[in-house]
Amino acid sequence: MNKSLKFFLYILGGALAGGALGFGVVWFGMNGIEAGMLAKLQGGMALAAPALQVLAILVCSLAAVGTMKRAGRLAAALDAGDEEQAEPALQAADTAINLLEVQQILVLFLMPFAMAPGGFSLLVSGLLVVVSVPLVILGQGRIVNFVRRINPEKRGDIRDLKFNKEWYESCDEAEQQKIGRVSYQAVLATQMVLLVLLVVVVLVRMVVPGDNLAAWCLLAAVLTLKISFWRGSRREEKRGGGAL
Amino acid sequence: MPLANRVKEHRARLGINQQELGQRIGASRQTVSLIERGDYNPSITLALRMAREFGVPVEEIFSLEGEETHE
């Protein structure tokens, strides 16, 4: 298909979807349906959030422990001289660390949903965060030590704020290239999500009374992303890497 | 064009593992493994370090797929 036509169709599709969404929220707002629905939704979420947090902690932690046991068996085979087991062992460690990150995200981001009159749900939710965060850091520390056993050249302490920087600097050319590619994909995906969220925030703001906190948060995220990208590009240019 | 290599063969000749070769040439064990599998094409610097370590010209280790390596 012609690229210009494809671009036009994307714009048209976006406009139609935006129009339908806008019409929907205005219609809901005019009929006053949203207030009751929101109250019910918030009440349900306040009760469900701590239970979901417990579920996330149990499922993710147990899955991470199981994965690390498998990684340990593979590492034992590697120690015995089977070099083919190094990659699967590292992949298992990677899966375990991702599981703990999912746990961290779920536990932290479910907490705001626990807000309800009385505050009991929020208290339980907050306690779960206090329990989960050190557990995740401890778990990630052990996984990092495991990875370092296979790749002894890796540096950095998980409890240190400079961990990511030190880890990156201890990576060789192939690993740094891989991190660069993956990070660029993450930047593109984040940009797209932020744009969609901005549209959603504007539409929701039309019917739900409140402040513009969500819009400010999105703006902060966009600015952080853009400024850090620009600064990185400038640094690369100064090093002689050419313009990005 | 994909790059063929004889890294594993030369490493076996020296009797060293991936970790040890990685340490000698300033790369990780994982990168040595990727190069051996043909999943990563090393930089010129790394290829030259490897050639120095094996004591052979770089063309003896790496060649364009389908072309013979220099003996």
Write structural notes for this entry.
The complex is a heterodimer of chains A (244) and B (71). With 244 residues, chain A is an all-alpha fold. Chain A has a domain at 34-171. Helix content of chain A is 82%, strand content 0%. Chain A has helices at residues 3-31, 33-79, 86-110, 120-150, 163-169, 173-207, 213-238. In chain A, helix 2 runs antiparallel to helix 3. Chain A starts with a helix and ends in a 6-residue tail after the last helix. The mean pLDDT of chain A is 87. By secondary structure, chain B is mostly helical. Chain B has helices at 7-14, 18-25, 29-37, 44-54, 58-61; strands spanning 3-5, 62-64. The radius of gyration of chain B is 11 Å and the shape is globular. The mean pLDDT of chain B is 90. The chains are: A mainly alpha (244), B mainly alpha (71). Chains A and B meet through helix 3 and helix 6 of A and helix 2 and helix 3 of B.
Tags for this model:
heterodimer; A: 244 residues; 82% helix; B: 71 residues; mainly alpha; two-stranded antiparallel ribbon; 56% helix
Give the arrangement of secondary structure elements.
The complex is a heterodimer of chains A (about 240) and B (about 70).
Chain A: H1 3-31, H2 33-79, H3 86-110, H4 120-150, H5 163-169, H6 173-207, H7 213-238
Helix pairs in contact in A: 1-6, 2-3, 2-4, 3-4, 6-7
Chain B: E1 3-5, H1 7-14, H2 18-25, H3 29-37, H4 44-54, H5 58-61, E2 62-64
Antiparallel strand pairs in B: 1-2
What percent of the residues of chain A sit in helical stretches (DSSP H or I)? over 70%
C-alpha end-to-end distance of chain B: 21 Å
Main sheet strand line-up of chain B: 1-2
Quantity of strands of chain B, as a count? 2
Order of helices and strands of chain A: HHHHHHH
Average of the residue pLDDT scores of chain B:
90
Counting DSSP H or I runs of 4 or more residues, the number of helices of chain A is 7
The counted number of beta strands of chain A is 0
List the helices and strands of chain B in order.
Answer: EHHHHHE
Helices of chain B, by number, come to 5
**Helix coverage percent of chain B:** 55-70%
